[in-house]
Design brief:
nine-stranded parallel sheet; binds flavin-adenine dinucleotide; 11 helices; 9 strands; globular
Length: 308
Protein backbone atom coordinates (compact mmCIF):
# COMPACT_ATOMS: atom_id res chain seq x y z
CA UNK A 1 0.00 0.00 0.00
CA UNK A 2 1.56 3.25 -1.10
CA UNK A 3 -0.55 5.89 0.67
CA UNK A 4 -0.59 6.74 4.37
CA UNK A 5 -4.10 6.47 5.76
CA UNK A 6 -5.61 9.61 7.31
CA UNK A 7 -9.04 9.91 9.00
CA UNK A 8 -9.69 13.06 6.95
CA UNK A 9 -9.79 12.66 3.17
CA UNK A 10 -7.68 14.87 0.90
CA UNK A 11 -9.75 17.06 -1.44
CA UNK A 12 -9.59 15.62 -4.96
CA UNK A 13 -9.00 19.16 -6.25
CA UNK A 14 -5.62 19.01 -4.44
CA UNK A 15 -4.79 15.67 -6.06
CA UNK A 16 -5.70 17.12 -9.46
CA UNK A 17 -3.47 20.14 -8.88
CA UNK A 18 -0.41 18.13 -7.94
CA UNK A 19 -0.80 14.96 -10.02
CA UNK A 20 2.11 13.98 -12.23
CA UNK A 21 -0.10 11.72 -14.33
CA UNK A 22 -3.85 11.47 -14.96
CA UNK A 23 -5.78 10.36 -11.86
CA UNK A 24 -7.58 7.03 -11.89
CA UNK A 25 -10.94 6.63 -10.13
CA UNK A 26 -13.52 3.86 -9.89
CA UNK A 27 -17.24 4.20 -9.34
CA UNK A 28 -19.02 1.60 -7.20
CA UNK A 29 -22.76 1.28 -6.70
CA UNK A 30 -24.62 -0.17 -3.70
CA UNK A 31 -25.72 -3.71 -4.64
CA UNK A 32 -29.30 -4.83 -4.16
CA UNK A 33 -28.85 -8.48 -3.11
CA UNK A 34 -26.69 -10.39 -0.62
CA UNK A 35 -25.12 -12.28 -3.51
CA UNK A 36 -24.06 -9.13 -5.33
CA UNK A 37 -22.84 -7.67 -2.04
CA UNK A 38 -20.56 -10.69 -1.61
CA UNK A 39 -19.28 -10.28 -5.15
CA UNK A 40 -18.68 -6.55 -4.54
CA UNK A 41 -16.54 -7.43 -1.50
CA UNK A 42 -14.40 -9.67 -3.74
CA UNK A 43 -14.07 -6.89 -6.33
CA UNK A 44 -13.11 -4.35 -3.67
CA UNK A 45 -10.45 -6.70 -2.34
CA UNK A 46 -9.12 -7.64 -5.75
CA UNK A 47 -8.92 -4.05 -7.02
CA UNK A 48 -7.10 -2.76 -3.96
CA UNK A 49 -3.71 -3.47 -5.52
CA UNK A 50 -4.53 -1.42 -8.63
CA UNK A 51 -4.19 1.65 -6.38
CA UNK A 52 -6.81 4.09 -7.75
CA UNK A 53 -6.34 7.74 -6.76
CA UNK A 54 -9.91 7.94 -5.48
CA UNK A 55 -13.16 5.99 -5.53
CA UNK A 56 -16.80 7.07 -5.57
CA UNK A 57 -20.07 5.47 -4.45
CA UNK A 58 -23.39 6.26 -6.12
CA UNK A 59 -26.48 7.41 -4.27
CA UNK A 60 -29.98 6.06 -4.81
CA UNK A 61 -33.33 7.61 -4.22
CA UNK A 62 -34.84 5.40 -1.51
CA UNK A 63 -33.95 5.54 2.19
CA UNK A 64 -32.36 2.06 2.35
CA UNK A 65 -30.28 2.72 -0.78
CA UNK A 66 -29.01 5.95 0.77
CA UNK A 67 -27.86 4.10 3.87
CA UNK A 68 -26.12 1.59 1.63
CA UNK A 69 -24.00 4.33 0.02
CA UNK A 70 -22.40 4.96 3.38
CA UNK A 71 -22.11 1.24 4.14
CA UNK A 72 -20.16 0.76 0.91
CA UNK A 73 -18.04 3.80 1.73
CA UNK A 74 -17.27 2.19 5.11
CA UNK A 75 -16.37 -1.09 3.37
CA UNK A 76 -14.00 0.80 1.05
CA UNK A 77 -12.45 2.47 4.09
CA UNK A 78 -11.85 -0.88 5.70
CA UNK A 79 -9.85 -1.77 2.61
CA UNK A 80 -8.01 1.55 2.96
CA UNK A 81 -9.19 3.16 -0.26
CA UNK A 82 -8.77 6.90 -0.01
CA UNK A 83 -10.18 9.44 -0.76
CA UNK A 84 -13.73 8.06 -0.96
CA UNK A 85 -16.28 10.30 -2.61
CA UNK A 86 -19.93 9.59 -1.79
CA UNK A 87 -22.47 10.85 -4.32
CA UNK A 88 -25.38 12.94 -3.07
CA UNK A 89 -28.55 13.86 -4.96
CA UNK A 90 -31.49 16.21 -4.37
CA UNK A 91 -34.03 13.41 -4.89
CA UNK A 92 -36.56 13.00 -2.09
CA UNK A 93 -34.79 15.23 0.47
CA UNK A 94 -35.69 18.59 1.93
CA UNK A 95 -32.90 21.14 2.39
CA UNK A 96 -32.82 20.37 6.12
CA UNK A 97 -32.29 16.69 5.35
CA UNK A 98 -29.56 17.50 2.83
CA UNK A 99 -27.81 19.63 5.44
CA UNK A 100 -28.00 16.75 7.95
CA UNK A 101 -26.50 14.34 5.41
CA UNK A 102 -23.78 16.86 4.55
CA UNK A 103 -22.93 17.26 8.25
CA UNK A 104 -22.76 13.48 8.64
CA UNK A 105 -20.48 13.13 5.60
CA UNK A 106 -18.23 15.88 6.93
CA UNK A 107 -18.11 14.45 10.46
CA UNK A 108 -17.11 11.06 9.02
CA UNK A 109 -14.02 12.67 7.49
CA UNK A 110 -15.15 12.65 3.86
CA UNK A 111 -14.21 15.87 2.10
CA UNK A 112 -15.41 15.12 -1.42
CA UNK A 113 -18.96 14.82 -2.72
CA UNK A 114 -20.22 14.09 -6.24
CA UNK A 115 -23.03 16.64 -6.27
CA UNK A 116 -26.07 15.79 -8.38
CA UNK A 117 -29.69 16.55 -8.95
CA UNK A 118 -30.29 12.82 -9.40
CA UNK A 119 -32.46 10.62 -11.52
CA UNK A 120 -36.13 10.06 -10.67
CA UNK A 121 -36.79 6.94 -8.57
CA UNK A 122 -37.75 3.72 -10.42
CA UNK A 123 -41.27 3.90 -11.83
CA UNK A 124 -41.27 7.72 -12.10
CA UNK A 125 -40.63 9.44 -15.42
CA UNK A 126 -39.51 12.87 -14.41
CA UNK A 127 -37.66 14.56 -11.60
CA UNK A 128 -39.91 16.12 -8.98
CA UNK A 129 -38.46 18.56 -6.45
CA UNK A 130 -39.03 17.23 -2.94
CA UNK A 131 -41.05 19.38 -0.56
CA UNK A 132 -38.65 22.01 0.77
CA UNK A 133 -35.96 20.50 -1.46
CA UNK A 134 -33.73 21.59 -4.33
CA UNK A 135 -34.41 21.47 -8.07
CA UNK A 136 -30.93 21.18 -9.52
CA UNK A 137 -27.31 20.31 -8.84
CA UNK A 138 -26.21 23.95 -8.96
CA UNK A 139 -28.36 24.73 -5.91
CA UNK A 140 -26.97 21.69 -4.07
CA UNK A 141 -23.40 22.86 -4.82
CA UNK A 142 -24.34 26.24 -3.40
CA UNK A 143 -25.87 24.73 -0.25
CA UNK A 144 -22.95 22.36 0.42
CA UNK A 145 -20.27 25.01 -0.13
CA UNK A 146 -21.99 27.42 2.22
CA UNK A 147 -22.36 24.73 4.89
CA UNK A 148 -18.83 23.28 4.59
CA UNK A 149 -16.49 25.44 2.51
CA UNK A 150 -13.78 22.76 2.75
CA UNK A 151 -15.84 20.27 0.74
CA UNK A 152 -14.44 19.53 -2.72
CA UNK A 153 -17.42 19.09 -5.06
CA UNK A 154 -17.55 17.17 -8.31
CA UNK A 155 -20.46 17.72 -10.72
CA UNK A 156 -21.76 15.90 -13.79
CA UNK A 157 -21.10 17.10 -17.33
CA UNK A 158 -22.67 15.81 -20.54
CA UNK A 159 -20.55 15.52 -23.72
CA UNK A 160 -23.73 14.36 -25.47
CA UNK A 161 -26.49 16.62 -24.23
CA UNK A 162 -28.49 15.50 -21.19
CA UNK A 163 -31.88 14.04 -22.22
CA UNK A 164 -33.55 17.08 -20.56
CA UNK A 165 -31.22 19.53 -22.27
CA UNK A 166 -32.86 22.72 -23.48
CA UNK A 167 -30.15 23.27 -26.07
CA UNK A 168 -26.39 23.14 -26.42
CA UNK A 169 -25.58 26.64 -25.24
CA UNK A 170 -28.02 26.61 -22.32
CA UNK A 171 -26.45 23.34 -21.17
CA UNK A 172 -22.96 24.83 -21.17
CA UNK A 173 -24.17 28.06 -19.52
CA UNK A 174 -25.80 25.98 -16.81
CA UNK A 175 -22.60 23.95 -16.31
CA UNK A 176 -20.74 27.25 -15.95
CA UNK A 177 -23.27 28.18 -13.25
CA UNK A 178 -22.34 24.97 -11.39
CA UNK A 179 -18.67 26.00 -11.60
CA UNK A 180 -19.51 29.52 -10.42
CA UNK A 181 -21.48 28.13 -7.48
CA UNK A 182 -18.29 26.37 -6.33
CA UNK A 183 -17.91 23.06 -8.19
CA UNK A 184 -14.27 21.95 -8.20
CA UNK A 185 -14.27 19.50 -11.07
CA UNK A 186 -16.51 17.81 -13.62
CA UNK A 187 -16.90 14.10 -14.32
CA UNK A 188 -18.61 13.34 -17.59
CA UNK A 189 -21.44 11.03 -18.42
CA UNK A 190 -20.22 7.93 -20.27
CA UNK A 191 -19.53 8.12 -24.01
CA UNK A 192 -18.19 5.66 -26.59
CA UNK A 193 -16.76 8.14 -29.10
CA UNK A 194 -13.98 10.34 -27.76
CA UNK A 195 -14.81 13.10 -30.23
CA UNK A 196 -17.85 13.98 -28.07
CA UNK A 197 -15.53 14.57 -25.11
CA UNK A 198 -12.98 16.63 -27.05
CA UNK A 199 -15.70 18.86 -28.54
CA UNK A 200 -17.31 19.27 -25.11
CA UNK A 201 -13.99 20.31 -23.50
CA UNK A 202 -13.49 22.88 -26.27
CA UNK A 203 -16.97 24.35 -25.77
CA UNK A 204 -16.47 24.48 -22.01
CA UNK A 205 -13.16 26.26 -22.45
CA UNK A 206 -14.77 28.87 -24.73
CA UNK A 207 -17.52 29.40 -22.13
CA UNK A 208 -15.01 30.04 -19.33
CA UNK A 209 -15.29 26.64 -17.65
CA UNK A 210 -11.75 25.99 -16.47
CA UNK A 211 -12.15 23.36 -13.77
CA UNK A 212 -10.78 19.90 -14.71
CA UNK A 213 -13.09 17.72 -16.83
CA UNK A 214 -12.55 14.04 -16.12
CA UNK A 215 -13.92 11.68 -18.79
CA UNK A 216 -16.24 8.99 -17.39
CA UNK A 217 -15.86 5.70 -19.26
CA UNK A 218 -17.94 2.56 -19.07
CA UNK A 219 -17.03 -0.60 -20.96
CA UNK A 220 -19.87 -2.38 -22.69
CA UNK A 221 -20.01 -5.74 -20.93
CA UNK A 222 -23.00 -7.11 -22.81
CA UNK A 223 -25.38 -5.94 -25.51
CA UNK A 224 -28.40 -5.96 -23.17
CA UNK A 225 -26.64 -3.99 -20.45
CA UNK A 226 -25.31 -1.33 -22.78
CA UNK A 227 -28.60 -0.93 -24.67
CA UNK A 228 -30.38 -0.38 -21.35
CA UNK A 229 -27.85 2.14 -20.08
CA UNK A 230 -27.56 4.15 -23.29
CA UNK A 231 -31.34 4.33 -23.62
CA UNK A 232 -31.46 5.90 -20.14
CA UNK A 233 -28.61 8.38 -20.48
CA UNK A 234 -28.90 9.14 -24.20
CA UNK A 235 -25.30 8.23 -25.11
CA UNK A 236 -24.69 7.25 -28.71
CA UNK A 237 -23.87 3.56 -29.23
CA UNK A 238 -21.55 3.56 -32.30
CA UNK A 239 -22.53 1.17 -35.09
CA UNK A 240 -19.14 -0.62 -35.23
CA UNK A 241 -19.36 -1.39 -31.49
CA UNK A 242 -23.00 -2.41 -31.79
CA UNK A 243 -22.12 -4.69 -34.75
CA UNK A 244 -19.32 -6.40 -32.83
CA UNK A 245 -21.52 -6.94 -29.79
CA UNK A 246 -24.27 -8.36 -31.99
CA UNK A 247 -21.79 -10.71 -33.67
CA UNK A 248 -20.82 -12.05 -30.24
CA UNK A 249 -24.40 -13.35 -29.96
CA UNK A 250 -24.90 -15.50 -26.87
CA UNK A 251 -21.18 -15.76 -26.22
CA UNK A 252 -20.98 -13.62 -23.06
CA UNK A 253 -17.20 -13.90 -22.86
CA UNK A 254 -16.74 -12.70 -26.46
CA UNK A 255 -19.13 -9.77 -25.88
CA UNK A 256 -17.28 -8.75 -22.73
CA UNK A 257 -13.90 -8.93 -24.48
CA UNK A 258 -15.28 -6.77 -27.31
CA UNK A 259 -16.41 -4.14 -24.81
CA UNK A 260 -13.12 -4.21 -22.92
CA UNK A 261 -11.07 -3.83 -26.12
CA UNK A 262 -13.21 -0.88 -27.28
CA UNK A 263 -12.82 0.70 -23.88
CA UNK A 264 -9.04 0.11 -23.87
CA UNK A 265 -8.71 1.89 -27.22
CA UNK A 266 -10.78 4.81 -25.90
CA UNK A 267 -8.56 5.02 -22.81
CA UNK A 268 -5.30 4.95 -24.80
CA UNK A 269 -6.53 7.82 -26.95
CA UNK A 270 -7.76 9.84 -23.95
CA UNK A 271 -4.55 9.31 -21.99
CA UNK A 272 -2.49 10.33 -25.00
CA UNK A 273 -4.55 13.52 -25.22
CA UNK A 274 -3.48 14.47 -21.68
CA UNK A 275 -6.80 14.18 -19.84
CA UNK A 276 -6.71 15.12 -16.12
CA UNK A 277 -8.01 11.73 -15.07
CA UNK A 278 -10.03 8.68 -16.02
CA UNK A 279 -13.20 7.83 -14.12
CA UNK A 280 -14.20 4.22 -14.69
CA UNK A 281 -17.79 3.14 -14.27
CA UNK A 282 -16.63 -0.31 -13.27
CA UNK A 283 -20.11 -1.76 -12.55
CA UNK A 284 -18.68 -3.41 -9.42
CA UNK A 285 -16.54 -5.70 -11.58
CA UNK A 286 -12.81 -6.24 -11.92
CA UNK A 287 -12.48 -6.44 -15.70
CA UNK A 288 -13.20 -2.77 -16.49
CA UNK A 289 -10.21 -1.87 -14.34
CA UNK A 290 -8.10 -4.25 -16.41
CA UNK A 291 -8.87 -2.13 -19.47
CA UNK A 292 -7.10 0.75 -17.77
CA UNK A 293 -4.10 -1.44 -16.89
CA UNK A 294 -3.94 -2.58 -20.52
CA UNK A 295 -4.08 0.99 -21.79
CA UNK A 296 -1.38 2.16 -19.37
CA UNK A 297 0.90 -0.75 -20.27
CA UNK A 298 0.44 -0.03 -23.98
CA UNK A 299 1.33 3.65 -23.50
CA UNK A 300 4.34 2.91 -21.27
CA UNK A 301 5.68 0.32 -23.75
CA UNK A 302 5.19 2.67 -26.71
CA UNK A 303 7.06 5.45 -24.93
CA UNK A 304 9.84 3.04 -24.00
CA UNK A 305 10.16 1.93 -27.64
CA UNK A 306 10.35 5.56 -28.76
CA UNK A 307 13.25 6.25 -26.41
CA UNK A 308 15.31 3.16 -27.34
C1 LIG B 1 -20.55 11.28 -12.94
C2 LIG B 1 -22.02 11.00 -12.72
C3 LIG B 1 -22.44 10.41 -11.53
C4 LIG B 1 -23.81 10.16 -11.30
N1 LIG B 1 -24.21 9.58 -10.12
C5 LIG B 1 -25.52 9.42 -9.83
C6 LIG B 1 -25.97 8.92 -8.56
O1 LIG B 1 -25.16 8.58 -7.70
N2 LIG B 1 -27.31 8.83 -8.34
C7 LIG B 1 -28.23 9.21 -9.28
O2 LIG B 1 -29.44 9.13 -9.02
N3 LIG B 1 -27.85 9.68 -10.50
C8 LIG B 1 -26.52 9.80 -10.79
N4 LIG B 1 -26.12 10.31 -12.02
C9 LIG B 1 -27.15 10.63 -13.02
C10 LIG B 1 -27.70 12.06 -12.82
O3 LIG B 1 -28.34 12.14 -11.57
C11 LIG B 1 -28.69 12.33 -13.94
O4 LIG B 1 -28.03 12.52 -15.16
C12 LIG B 1 -29.70 13.43 -13.66
O5 LIG B 1 -30.73 13.32 -14.61
C13 LIG B 1 -29.13 14.84 -13.72
O6 LIG B 1 -28.31 15.11 -12.64
P1 LIG B 1 -27.33 16.40 -12.70
O7 LIG B 1 -26.65 16.50 -11.42
O8 LIG B 1 -26.52 16.37 -13.92
O9 LIG B 1 -28.45 17.52 -12.81
P2 LIG B 1 -28.33 19.04 -13.14
O10 LIG B 1 -26.92 19.45 -13.30
O11 LIG B 1 -29.14 19.79 -12.15
O12 LIG B 1 -29.07 19.15 -14.55
C14 LIG B 1 -29.00 18.18 -15.58
C15 LIG B 1 -29.38 18.80 -16.90
O13 LIG B 1 -30.67 19.38 -16.83
C16 LIG B 1 -30.68 20.62 -17.51
N5 LIG B 1 -30.92 21.71 -16.55
C17 LIG B 1 -31.20 21.55 -15.24
N6 LIG B 1 -31.37 22.73 -14.63
C18 LIG B 1 -31.16 23.66 -15.58
C19 LIG B 1 -31.20 25.08 -15.58
N7 LIG B 1 -31.50 25.78 -14.50
N8 LIG B 1 -30.95 25.72 -16.74
C20 LIG B 1 -30.66 25.03 -17.86
N9 LIG B 1 -30.62 23.68 -17.92
C21 LIG B 1 -30.87 23.02 -16.80
C22 LIG B 1 -29.36 20.71 -18.22
O14 LIG B 1 -29.46 20.10 -19.47
C23 LIG B 1 -28.46 19.91 -17.34
O15 LIG B 1 -27.31 19.39 -18.00
C24 LIG B 1 -24.77 10.53 -12.29
C25 LIG B 1 -24.33 11.11 -13.49
C26 LIG B 1 -22.99 11.35 -13.72
C27 LIG B 1 -22.54 11.96 -15.02
Amino acid sequence: MSKLFSPIDTPISELLKHAERPLLSYEFFPPKTDKSMASLRDTVEELRDTDPDFVTVTYGAGGSTRKLTFEIAALLRRFRYQPIMPHLTCVGSSQEELVDIADYIHAEGFRNIMTLRGDPPKGENSFVTAQGGLACARDLVDLLKRRHPDFCLGVAGYPEPHPESRGDQEDIDYLKAKQDAGADFITTQLFFENQYYYRFVEKCDKAGIHIPIIPGIMPALSLGQIRRITSMCGADLPLPLLGKLESAGDNAEAAMNTGIMWCTEQLIDLLEHGVPGIHLYILNQVRPALAYQLARTFIDMTHKLKTV
